[in-house]
């Protein structure tokens, strides 16, 4: 193969033959050859099955590669990088690296990639840093596995970008510009994910993505138009996404999104919980302004949960009860269940209380007494509707302190549950 004048040694190795599978075998084998002297790093990467499966190159093959590409490094230490663009401003032809294993950190800066860049199922064991690069054609990184740190900072993606099923640790897409469709479906961010000041000109898809740490979509200057973002079935394990300064599009999809649960939010320090509360607040406000009632209340419930957690100890019980009774005003089944429970237990309390009063045994058997107690309990719960006129008042002819205590407490509980029932119905059925 005759190397193009603009190729770097690494690009020449990636295209050393006309067959992709042979290119992959020689590239991966040479990575293993270079890493072998670094015993500690070699053993660490041996924990990766993809590295274990790489077949060692023979001495003749190694010599042949070094003869054909004399300026290719013959030895590297663990902190050396694979610089794909040193000395060139453009990568003019397609670069296909499907299944390639990069044992060392990869670096590319101020470079324009004019051809299709394919990194499908590539393995970046030590990370990838692309800074101020322009990708004029599609970038396909479906199923790629990136190392401890991935950077596409200040990069511009002219055509479509595919990261479906990719795995990241910490990922930095700060100030990146996506001019066309951007797809991250089923990707996983094990560390922090930064899309701060990134610009999405077309739609961006984050369906079923796992975010395990802080995720930022903040925008310092809200100068870009809002575009459709999809987080359908996405999972945020420790922190909600942050959208400070960024406008939400009315077609932003939060269907089935999973937000951090109480157990996940028990561990972070207070200052992070304060940040999370503010993130929920911003999302609630933005969804409310778009009339997205379900999404607005979803973020409101999480905001209330954190507000209760961050409140002084003597007010936390009120937030806990608010959640227990009505799921922060969202559920109408909880108040109904509460009223049924009050009706059932207070009927038993009334029956036991009145059966203990001997004078009632003269005119009422136990079955009749139980029916009257059930009617009295129902009337007390719905006292605001005047149901006392529907049931006999014999049981209250000679009220005792216990009788008054039971009736008053049940009436108050009934009013509380009725209030939250109305609130839940109003929220769920958009009754404004």
Overview of this protein structure:
- This protein has 432 residues and is of the alpha/beta class.
- The chain is built from 11 helices and 27 strands.
- It has helices at residues 9-14, 20-35, 39-45, 49-52, 59-68, 270-289, 293-310, 313-326, 333-355, 366-381, 401-428, and strands at residues 81-83, 90-91, 95-96, 101-102, 105-109, 112-113, 117-118, 123-124, 128-131, 134-135, 139-140, 149-153, 156-157, 161-162, 167-168, 170-172, 177-178, 182-183, 188-189, 193-194, 199-200, 204-205, 210-211, 215-216, 229-230, 235-236, 241-242.
- The strands form 5 sheets. The protein has an 8-stranded parallel β-sheet with strand order 1-5-9-12-16-20-24-27. It has a 7-stranded parallel β-sheet with strand order 3-7-11-14-18-22-25, with no helix packed on it.
- The model is unreliable at 1-5 (pLDDT under 50).
Give the strand order, joined by hyphens, for the main sheet: 1-5-9-12-16-20-24-27
Assign a percent range to the helix content: 25-40%
| Class from helix and strand fractions | alpha/beta
User: What's the total count of β strands?
Assistant: 27
Chain-averaged pLDDT: 89
| 3D shape | elongated
Low-confidence stretches: 1-5
Number of helices: 11
Biggest sheet character? 8 strands, parallel
- Beta-strand fraction estimate: 5-15%
Cα separation of the termini: 72 Å
The value of Rg in angstroms is 33 Å
């Amino acid at each position: 193969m005759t190397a193009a004048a603009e190729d770097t040694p690494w690009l020449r190795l990636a295209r050393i033959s006309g067959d992709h599978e042979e290119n992959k075998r020689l590239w991966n084998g040479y990575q293993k050859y270079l890493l072998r002297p670094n015993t500690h790093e070699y053993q660490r990467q041996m924990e990766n099955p993809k590295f274990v499966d790489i077949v060692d190159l023979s001495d003749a093959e190694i010599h042949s590669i070094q003869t054909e590409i004399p300026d290719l490094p013959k030895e590297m230490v663990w902190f050396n990088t694979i610089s794909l663009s040193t000395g060139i401003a453009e990568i003019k032809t397609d670069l296909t690296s499907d299944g390639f294993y990069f044992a060392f950190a990869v670096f590319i800066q101020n470079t324009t990639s004019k051809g299709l860049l394919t990194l499908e199922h590539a393995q970046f064991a030590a990370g990838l840093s692309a800074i101020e690069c322009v990708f004029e054609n599609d970038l396909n990184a479906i199923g790629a596995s990136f190392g401890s740190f991935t950077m596409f900072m200040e990069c511009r993606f002219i055509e479509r970008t595919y990261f479906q099923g990719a795995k990241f640790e910490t990922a930095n897409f700060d100030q990146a510009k996506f001019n066309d469709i951007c797809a991250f479906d089923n990707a996983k961010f094990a560390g922090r994910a930064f899309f701060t000041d990134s610009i999405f000109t077309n739609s961006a898809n984050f369906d079923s993505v796992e975010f395990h740490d802080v995720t930022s979509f903040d925008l310092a200057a809200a100068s870009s138009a809002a575009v459709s973002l999809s987080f359908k079935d996405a999972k945020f394990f420790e922190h909600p996404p942050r959208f400070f300064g960024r406008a939400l599009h009315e077609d932003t999809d939060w269907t089935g999104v999973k937000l951090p649960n109480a157990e996940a939010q028990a561990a972070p320090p207070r200052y992070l919980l304060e940040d999370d509360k503010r993130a929920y607040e911003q999302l609630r406000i933005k969804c409310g302004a778009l009339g997205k009632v379900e999404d607005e209340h979803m973020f409101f419930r999480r905001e209330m949960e954190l507000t209760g957690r961050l409140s002084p100890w003597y007010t936390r019980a009120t937030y806990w009860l608010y959640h227990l009774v009505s799921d922060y005003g969202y559920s109408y089944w909880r108040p109904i269940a509460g009223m049924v429970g009050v009706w059932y237990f207070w009927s038993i309390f009334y029956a036991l209380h009145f059966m203990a009063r001997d004078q009632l045994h003269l005119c009422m058997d136990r079955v009749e007494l139980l029916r009257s107690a059930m009617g009295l309990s129902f009337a007390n719960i719905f006292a605001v509707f005047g149901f006392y006129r529907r049931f006999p008042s014999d049981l209250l002819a000679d009220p005792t302190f216990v009788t008054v205590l039971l009736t008053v407490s049940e009436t108050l509980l009934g009013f509380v549950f009725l209030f939250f029932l109305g609130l839940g119905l109003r929220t769920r059925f958009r009754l404004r």
